[in-house]
Amino acid sequence: MTDSQNRRVVALVAGSHFVNHTYLVMLAPIVTVLAARFDVSLAAIGLAIGVQNAVVLALQLPFGYVSDAHSRTLVLGISLVVGTLGAVLTALAPSYAWLLGSQVVLGIGVAGHHPAHYPLLAAVSTDANRGRAYSAHAFGGAVGLASPYAVVAATTALGFSWRVAIGALAAFGAVYAVYCLLSFRGVDEEITRPGLQARPDGRPTLRSVPGRVQALLRTLAASRGILALTVLAFLTSAAAWTIRTYTPSLLASGYGLPAGTANVVVSAMLAIGAGLILVGGGLTDRVGAGPVVIASYAVLAVVAALLATLALPTLALGIVLVFSGSISLSRPARSALADQLSARADLGKNFAMVTIGISLGGAVAPPVFGFLLDEVGLGFSFGVVSVLGVLALGLGWRIVRDAAADAPPTPSAADD
């Protein structure tokens, strides 16, 4: 495999991450608009978003199996095509029941992107560039999360409805799906379809459903590191979702900033976090995943504790908010650890497990911390985020300490 082919795979996967993340959050900027349009509560629209996340959770391991045993590009194609179909159905929704159904379809599409992306990245990266490859992927996803907000703002300013905004995202996704899948036709099968090497006749070995379950359980039991990374992903995802969701309330109610200013500050904070992903990838390649993980979660614990005081002066508050993106800094390093701890045949399943931790954090944190904010206030709630940071720091240190002993031999991309 050539360097140009490897760079092409990284770029295509980063673009797919962008598209899938626009689908993941496309309802968030229009929650109140949809509630009014379909005459339902905000909680009902939240349920629609929850339905999508539930489908994503349920399909992580099945897609991981298909990615490992048969074809990574098959899973990638399902992700882009079915996700785009779900976005189109969302834009056309005439009723709330239709909206719920469209989120099921969207969830099927979104569910496939991590089980396909991470094994593809692992196949084309080496110890010298792995952190940067994962940071390019994460950066694409971070920009994707921000894009629906910008598209909705632009279409609203032009006087168009929410359907135009969702339709525009779907149209871009459709064009990219065609381009991406055609571009992958020229990529070596040892990267895209490693499962076909399992039998001399070029077909993957087929197992019964019980056999697949037993194989999966053996894989997980043999890798305590992946299970620990899944828990770590849950802790850090819960912290990240809480900071993203409730920092505007913290700034407005706790520090007295006007609501508009608070939202601008948080937008800038998220933009800085996207940049820190790229910094984290470079640091991971330069100093290793362990130091980046440990430093990032230590900073998270300190930042959340400082915010919880509700007493920072304005200048100090701005500095602290910049460092709140330390979770973003750690993402390429965490992915590199998952890569290091995975046998090549289990990449899809293992990254699917880590994604389950991420998704669970996103499902649990907003309602739980919303309840805490109502019942015990901002200071205590962000103090709990600091505790999550301390737990992540301890678990991250343990994973890093055990990684050298637990990791299977990892061939470089040049040896594949």
Tag the structure with descriptive keywords.
mainly alpha, 17 helices, 416 residues, disordered C terminus, 2 domains, globular, 0% strand, Growth Hormone, Chain: A
What does the model show?
This protein has 416 residues and is mainly alpha-helical. The protein has two domains: 1-191, MFS general substrate transporter like domains (Growth Hormone, Chain: A, Up-down Bundle), CATH 1.20.1250; 213-407, Growth Hormone, Chain: A (Up-down Bundle), CATH 1.20.1250.20. The protein has 17 helices and no strands. The chain has helices spanning 3-24, 31-38, 42-69, 72-92, 96-111, 113-124, 130-157, 162-183, 189-192, 209-221, 224-254, 259-287, 289-308, 314-323, 326-340, 347-376, 378-406. Helix 3 packs parallel to helix 5 (96-111), helix 7 runs antiparallel to helix 12 and helix 11 runs parallel beside helix 16 (347-376). The longest helix has 31 residues, at 224-254. The radius of gyration is 21 Å and the shape is globular.
Task: Give the SSE layout.
Layout: H1 3-24, H2 31-38, H3 42-69, H4 72-92, H5 96-111, H6 113-124, H7 130-157, H8 162-183, H9 189-192, H10 209-221, H11 224-254, H12 259-287, H13 289-308, H14 314-323, H15 326-340, H16 347-376, H17 378-406
